[in-house]
Design goal:
Largest sheet: 5 strands, mixed
Strand order of the largest sheet: 3-2-1-9-10
Helix content: 10-25%
Radius of gyration: 14 Å
Strand content: 25-35%
Order of helices and strands: EHEHEEEHEEEEE
Length: about 160
């Protein structure tokens, strides 16, 4: 048994692009790492797990949840941000370890990032609206999760 997860972040009110991706990917679980910039009614209807970013104002800053035997920590991460990539990554790894999580999903940077070689895995799906990496691609992540395996794939919106 495998579950398909759609991991997104930093959509900044672009609900249409989220609906398009949901229709294309048909995920069983949808995760949003903040800066959704839309109303909670829409979020509750379409998104399984979500947190607020620095542009959302509902005070839902982090969330822990389980899928199969994997423990997830979801946050936007603006409060841990550093322009020094090593410092930033270490802060997130320490946070994941303190909370005994397998996967930490974060946003804020608008730059996709997947570190899945050793636990805790760090996943940033990038941005659906305002990408900041050099190629300018709008991105999201698909994760396939089973009881003993998890695989992450970065996808580009075409």
């Amino acid at each position: 048994m495998t579950k398909k997860l759609l991991i997104i972040s930093d959509s900044h009110g672009n609900n249409e692009i989220i609906e398009k991706i949901i229709k294309k990917e048909k995920p069983e679980v949808i995760i949003h790492a903040g800066d959704y910039c839309t109303n909670e009614e829409w979020m509750n209807k379409h998104i399984t797990y979500y947190v607020d970013g620095n542009n959302d104002y509902h005070n839902k800053r982090s969330l822990l949840f389980n899928i199969f035997n994997y423990k997830f920590y979801l946050l936007h991460s603006d409060e841990f941000f550093s322009f020094n990539q090593t410092t930033y990554e270490n802060r997130l790894i320490n946070l994941a370890r303190e909370n005994q999580t397998d996967v930490l999903i974060f946003g804020h940077t608008h730059i996709p990032y997947i570190k899945d070689d050793i636990k805790p895995y760090l996943i940033n799906p990038g941005s659906l609206s305002y990408p900041r990496q050099s190629n300018g691609n709008k991105t999201y992540v698909i994760a396939l999760v089973s009881w003993n395996h998890i695989k992450f794939e970065l996808k580009t919106i075409k």
